[in-house]
Write a structure and sequence with these properties.
The structure is a homodimer.
Chain A (H helix, E strand, L loop, with lengths): L12 E2 H8 L3 H11 L5 E2 L5 E3 L1 H15 L4 H4 L4 H10 L5 H6 L9 H9 L3 H15 L1 H21 L5 H22 L9 E5 L8 H12 L3 E4 L6 H10 L4 E6 L5 H14 L5 E6 L13 E3 L5 H11 L4
Parallel strand pairs in A: 4-5, 4-6, 6-7, 7-8
Antiparallel strand pairs in A: 1-3, 2-3
Helix pairs in contact in A: 3-5, 8-9, 8-10, 9-10, 10-11, 12-13
Chain A binds a DNA duplex through helix 2.
DNA sequence: AATTATCTTTGTCCTGGACAATTTGGGCAA
DNA sequence: TTGCCCAAATTGTCCAGGACAAAGATAATT
């Protein structure tokens, strides 16, 4: 009998659900409401906030604009129309990238791949990726296809032209292709040096960069041990010790604050033995502002062979 | 000049870091402090909490005991010795599993694999896993080896016999083997039905269960589309629509609170078309307390073939 | 132009109170 | 004993509104 459902099935989402959906912390949602007058959730019987779906959508758009560099004071509180206008007007993150790949390139066109993503055709995309990988060699595949394509996907998402789930699916497929490639490579270099431990810090859940690095390093004759993403600092130090790693390699994106990243690196550098190398890379600008003591910052994946060569110079016994 | 380092290199972790490390919400940490007198963090210059490493360790132990069914009032506030005693006294999570695999079984022994994990020998472990997979068939490999082994690893971790990084490495290797297997299977069933969309909700970052499900379902002739982990609710609904999914399958662990999980499922069920199935599984006890309207709870991976068969019964046109 | 100092913005943390949902334990009937 | 129901205790999450440090923007100086 009755009491089937609280009836107010869509009176709106509670604040915890909005935090999950938008990635905006509960404290942030409350303080925006106080300062900018948006969002303006309804209240349930207990006085708790209930966010209507439309406001959640607007929050998601705002989130994208913030990721693109806008400041909250300018965009929170704008209505949907103004937000959409801003979105379309965003300057591309990588104006150079597009220019660098003129039409007529015989590479499998980025645009074609983007179209396959937007067409929700995973099989076609997977085939295209595998085909490209076999055709152009692993290093070129990564440097000339995966890197620019990932940038393009990120940018398309920022502009609202791709949904999050489309980016997720793209990431899954590329990961699969890269893992395949690594698996095919690994047996040859099981005991190569340097022995490199790969992972990311807690908070950093983006593992695609890690896979690309693992593939390129394996190609350079290193033996790679990947712990996946989000390993606590203490465990990284422990793992480096028990696996006799010559180098710890970490990948970053810009999701975390630069300060936090540098602080973590400082602590990790202290906990690692001095002779263990610490290589860092990824799209986190704080890594490259100034040289970090005892840390090798790798700006671009194409610099990796050089870094490995450098290591061999400094460790001639291997 | 000076100002090289704040000197207080390890005055303790801020509350946000403890939340990440332990999975305990900031609000919970504060309310425990108020009610039970533990934890009792130091304060930095600004009056913010700084948790010493020892307290964080104790919190992690407490978290494990809570997951094992203890109540906060009984365990928060016990000293380390009492906690350890409780921990060792915990009934094993899977008393049956050990009994079900008597010595002399010709299976690659779980113990041998656990030893390989503890010995930090990834190559041996990978070879053993691959060998087992080829020898026993994919379904048996998953149901009889990977599932009990993962349980054993989780339990060993809970008892403090394995470090997090050892679990991470194990997960990476098993994931690799499973992905390999799926890749070898997939081409045969590209358009099989049901077409199943796999992912996890935001907050749930454990993807191994998802891989096992994908493998078993592919084996049953389904075509699987995996979005990886942590897809927002709205995107799951969108993705199900554009990919013409017959079923959405979600995997859970016990890291999130049961209430939050059920609330999310309720919302998702509303947003999905009625004819789209919603299958859920994993080690989150809230899923199995009572039947959920419009949701199929799969208690064990070995039930999957039955669930697929059931689906075919109800959709004879496929 | 480049660097430094000052003002603004913004996310996170704080306190202490409240409450709803779950769990526990007792009382009572079968 | 077992099963069921209600009161009491437990427990996680939410709230308000204040505070502040880090980061960004702007102005002043070299």
């Amino acid at each position: 009998m009755s009491r089937a459902v609280p009836a107010a099935a869509d009176a709106g989402l509670p604040i915890a659900a909005v935090e999950r959906e938008t990635g905006l912390a509960k404290d942030t949602l409350r303080v925006w409401e106080r300062r900018y007058g948006f969002p303006q959730p309804l209240r349930d019987g207990a006085g708790n906030r209930r966010y209507p779906a439309a406001q959640v959508e607007r929050l998601k758009v705002i989130r994208r604009l913030l990721d693109a560099g806008q400041r909250p004071g300018k965009v929170v509180g704008l209505d949907s129309a103004a937000l959409q206008a801003l979105l379309s007007g965003q300057a591309p993150l990588t104006p150079a990238a597009a220019a660098r790949l003129p039409a007529g390139s015989e590479l499998p066109s980025l645009q074609a791949m983007l179209d396959a993503i937007a067409a929700h055709d995973p099989q076609t995309l997977r085939r295209a990726l595998t085909h490209a990988r076999l055709g152009m060699g692993l290093a070129s595949f990564i440097n000339e296809l995966v890197v620019p394509l990932s940038k393009a996907v990120g940018e398309a998402w920022m502009r609202g032209r791709l949904e999050i789930f489309e980016e997720h699916l793209y990431t899954e497929l590329v990961s699969g292709v890269l893992r395949d490639a690594i698996a095919g490579l690994a047996p040859a270099v099981e005991s190569g040096r340097p022995r490199i431990l790969l992972t990311t810090l807690p908070q950093e859940q983006h593992g695609l960069g890690l896979l690309m690095v693992a593939a390129l390093l394996t190609l350079e004759g290193c033996s790679c041990i990947s712990l996946g993403t989000q390993t606590p600092l203490g465990d990284i130090a422990l793992a480096a010790a028990v696996h006799d790693a010559d180098v710890v390699a970490l990948s970053f994106t810009s999701v975390q604050s630069g300060t936090a990243v540098l602080e973590s690196l400082r602590v990790l550098r202290i906990r690692l033995p001095g002779q263990t190398g610490l290589w860092v890379g990824g799209s986190c600008s704080a890594l490259y502002h100034k040289p970090l003591a005892g840390i090798t910052a790798v700006r671009s994946l194409s610099d990796l062979p050089g870094v490995v060569a450098q290591w061999h110079c400094e460790h001639p016994q291997h």
